[in-house]
Amino acid sequence: MTLTLDDVRNKRFRMARKSGYEVLEVDEFVDEVEESFAQLVEENQNLKKQIEALKAAPTPQPIAPAP
Asked: Do 15 and 47 touch, CB atoms closer than 8 A?
């Protein structure tokens, strides 16, 4: 399964009966993960655009040495 940014944003944890996690700590951590994930997704998209631009650019011709 590929994890998406929306998966991270929409993840909800069930409350444990006795000894669960501190909700605030989990929320803060998920917020940090979400921010990092968003930056990586944006960087990935930008790199893909750069690759496509480089593929579409004309190939420079080598200059022949003077005789």
From this structure: no
Residues in the chain: 67
Yes or no: say if 41 and 5 are a contact pair by the CB < 8 Å rule.
Answer: yes
pTM here is: 0.63
Instruction: Quick: pLDDT tens for 40-55.
Output: 989 999 999 999 999 9
Ordered DSSP codes for the chain: ----HHHHHH---PPPSSS---HHHHHHHHHHHHHHHHHHHHHHHHHHHHHHHHHHSPPPPPPPPP-
